[in-house]
Amino acid sequence: MAMKPDHEVTLLVRADCHACDAAAADIRRICAELEVPWHAEDVDSDAELRAEYGDRVPVILIDGEEHGYWAVEEQRFRAALRR
Length: 83
Prior knowledge:
Blueprint: E1 9-13, H1 18-34, E2 38-42, H2 47-53, E3 59-62, E4 65-69, H3 74-82
Parallel strand pairs: 1-2
Antiparallel strand pairs: 1-3, 3-4
């Protein structure tokens, strides 16, 4: 029986962002396989998020900590979720 990871992933995105769409597809697939909850949040809906992350979307947060940006590095992402 697989152990369920105790993580949550947040993907910071913005509208009309092709890199965001690609990252979301990767995260959706990997998180479904590993049974890790995730959600996307629009950086342009929050001034603090936009100021912090707006020039780097998509940005991947694991448990609220920045993991990476611009693209999903699948092996590194999977390893982080298995910890």
